[in-house]
From TrEMBL:
Record's signal peptide: none
Alphabetized GO MF terms: glutathione transferase activity
SUPFAM superfamilies in the record: GST C-terminal domain-like, Thioredoxin-like
Domain GST C-terminal: 93-237
GO annotation (BP), single: glutathione metabolic process
Name of this protein: Glutathione S-transferase
A Pfam family assignment: GST_C_3
Keywords on record: Transferase
Amino acid sequence: MAYELYYWDGLQGRGEFVRLALEEAGADYVDVTREPGRGTDAMFALMKSESEPHVPFAPPFLRDGDLIIPHVANILFYLGPKLGLAPEDEGLRHVANGLQLTVTDFIAEVHDTHHPIDMSLYYEDQKPEAKARSAAFIRDRIPKFLGYFERVVRQNPAGPDHMVGDALTYVDLSLFQVIEGLSYAFPKAMAKRKAEYPTLLALHDRVAKRPNIARYLASPRRLAFNEDGIFRHYPELDSAE
C-alpha cells in the first residue's frame, strides 16, 4: 500500500520535510489533501475521529497501513530506515533524530517571525511585533542555528558531505529545505551571511542536484513557497543589517 501523507493543501510547510524524503526514495505515496474526492475533509475526519485508536493532534501525519505516525521528526525517524535514508548504526540514528529535532525547533522560530503574538491573528494584526521579532531572528537566531549546523557537517567524522554518517539521510534533505526556505523568506539576510556557511551551502547544492530531487523540484508536485506557509517573504521583515 502507498504511504498516505496528510498536510494542508497548497502549502509546503512542515509536510515538505516528509515529501522530500519520500521523493528522494522514489516511494509510493499519496498527498491526501490534494487528491480529488478526499481533500482536507479526509484529514479532518481522522483528526476529529471518536473511534481512531491513535488519533493525531495536527498535521503533518503519515498513515502506513493501520499505523498513524504524527510529527515531522517522528515520521522521519520511522521512515528513514524503511527508505534507506537513515544511518545503519543505531546510535547514529539517534544522532540524526536529534538533528531533526533541532530543525523542528528552528522551524518553530521561523514561524514566529511573522506570528510572534498569536497564531489566530493575521500577520497584519501584529506587524510591529513581527518586525521586531524578525530583526532579532536575523541578528541572533539564524547565525546560532546555521552556525551550529555548519559545525556539525564540517566535523562529521565520516566527512563533510553529509550531516551524519557517510551517506545521504533525511537530515541532509531537511537542511536543504531549511536553506531553501530561509533564502525565500529572508533573501537579503541570507545573501549577506552565505559566506559564513560554505559547507552547509555545498550540502544544499548537492541535494538539489540529486536526480530524484531535481525531478521533484521541477515537477508540479513541488508547491511554491507562499505567504500562507511557514517560510513567508514580507520585504519589510527582511534586512541585511
